């Protein structure tokens, strides 16, 4: 997160919103601790995660930094579900005789896991080892892309409002 006046104001607004919604006061020290804990994330991502917490949090306790970061990162279950959907899509594409996808992530995963779409087409899609290898490659690619976005301070999943 960029440490400038605008970012600090936006971050303070997040902390004030938490204080208002969850009925717990905040302080300069608390704000500083949270700011330091979350400094590796873009402010836009923190704002998005904070909005989600306000909408979804069931227990009325002030969110801790780890709850905010969990909202910013897909859970393992979500990644597994996405990877399984990608596997099914790759199987469908291969069944149709195509050798690429409109999804660049799927193309990258196929290349990493099997070397090419042609090799994937020759694989037994019922083989649990091939499926597991694909899923692990998919999760790795997604995590690598997420880490790269954080280091660059960008995200393609930013939503305002």
Describe the overall structure.
This protein has helices at 5-22, 28-37, 43-56, 65-72, 76-95, 104-114, 117-122, 128-152. It contains 8 helices and no strands. The model is unreliable at 154-161 (pLDDT under 50). The longest helix is centred in the last third of the chain and has 25 residues, at 128-152. The chain has 161 residues and is mainly alpha-helical. The chain is elongated and about 60 Å long. The protein has 2 domains: 5-72, no CATH class; 76-152, no CATH class. The chain starts with a helix and ends in a 9-residue tail after the last helix. Helix 3 (43-56) crosses helix 4.
How many strand units? 0
Tell me what portion of residues adopts beta-strand conformation. Answer: under 5%
The SSE string, one letter per element, is HHHHHHHH
Distance between the termini: 19 Å
Tell me the helix content.
Answer: 55-70%
Low-confidence stretches: 154-161
Q: What is the makeup of the main sheet?
A: none
Q: Work out the count of structural domains.
A: 2
User: Could you say which overall geometry the principal axes of the C-alpha atoms support?
Assistant: elongated
* SS-derived structural category: mainly alpha
**Count of individual helical segments:** 8
Mean pLDDT, as a whole number? 87
User: Gyration radius, to the nearest Å?
Assistant: 20 Å
């Amino acid at each position: 997160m960029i440490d400038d006046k605008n970012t600090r104001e936006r971050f303070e607004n997040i902390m004030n919103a938490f204080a208002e919604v969850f009925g717990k006061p905040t302080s300069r020290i608390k704000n500083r601790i949270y700011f330091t804990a979350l400094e590796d994330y873009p402010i836009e991502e923190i704002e998005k995660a904070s909005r989600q917490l306000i909408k979804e949090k069931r227990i009325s306790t002030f969110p801790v930094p780890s709850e905010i970061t969990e909202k910013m990162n897909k859970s393992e279950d979500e990644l597994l579900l996405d990877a399984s959907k990608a596997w099914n899509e790759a199987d469908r594409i291969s069944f149709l005789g195509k050798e690429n996808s409109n999804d660049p992530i799927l193309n990258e995963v196929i290349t990493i896991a099997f070397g090419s779409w042609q090799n994937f087409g020759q694989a037994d899609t019922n083989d649990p080892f091939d499926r597991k290898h694909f899923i692990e490659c998919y999760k790795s690619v997604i995590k690598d892309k997420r880490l790269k976005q954080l280091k660059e301070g960008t995200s393609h999943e930013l939503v305002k409002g």
